[in-house]
Amino acid sequence: MDIVNLFSWGQLLITVGELLLFFGLLYFLRGLLERAYLLGNFQNRALRLVHEILLIGKPLAILLVLMVFVFINVPFHGALVLTAFIFAFNHIKNYISGQVIKFDPYFALGKQIKTANFQGIISAIGNFGLKTTTSKGIQFIDYSTLTQQGYLLQSGEEISGYYQLKISRENTLKDNFQKRLMDLLVMTPFLDWNHKPEISFIDEHQLNVKVLVKEETHLYDFINWLKGFDYDCKIVNK
User: What is the pTM of this model?
Assistant: First the structure.
């Protein structure tokens, strides 16, 4: 077989289709594990495993698709890929740096991140950088900058207004406990939605919830507001 035409367009489409199906199933599984308490003490481990497979699998999948694309017509497609790589080098560098950083289990929403030039709470984690909530508002920083400058992670509980709560309700089915609570949280006026609440299961009737309130005085207003909907709420960490 001619190495210049090792693959066909049909094989490229089949490869892309199989990868989309594989990652679609992984994202479905991740969403299911985030919403429903299914595996008991192994729930968080399973979520972490799916997260790590996605981190490793996505760049490998991109490389596989590019390889098949190049070997459809090596001279022409190889030149196209090389040109795209040169022009998109900074974005590629950011993406790869991000995959490496996100492999750290302590790198998560709600953590305080500190570099030589700024500090804030991680409020969103993207493919090419992250958003942080600082005293000056929302700030974006790319992953290449983080790897160049270095960074320090601290628990979000050290930041004013960030709390970890244990929320329970006896008469709620485990399959929709998390969803119902999140739907309820959207209605509250006390939370700062620059940081989306993090919810994880403790057991069938208890959730671990990390929230950022707009003002320190809003914490007990928020707890009393939840009690009005028959949720029991305890402060784990301040």
Answer: 0.64
Say yes or no: domain 160-237 is CATH 3.30.70.
yes
Structure tokens at 141: 């920083």
**DSSP notation for the chain:** --GGG-S-HHHHHHHHHHHHHHHHHHHHHHHHHHHS--SGGGHHHHHHHHHHHHHHHHHHHHHHHHHHHHTTSHHHHHHHHHHHHHHTHHHHHHHHHHHHHHTSTT--TT-EEE-SS-EEEEEEE-SSEEEEEETTEEEEEEHHHHHHH--EEE-GGGSTTEEEEEEE-TTS-HHHHHHHHHHHHTT-SSB-TTSPPEEEEEETTEEEEEEEBSSTTHHHHHHHHHHTTT-EEEEEE-
Backbone angles phi, psi at 179, to 5 degrees: -65, -45
For the chain, list residues with pLDDT below 50: 157-158
Of 108, 101, 112, the closest CA to residue 124 belongs to 108
Condensed to tens digits (0 to 9), the pLDDT of residues 188-232 reads 888 877 677 888 777 767 888 888 787 777 788 888 888 888 888
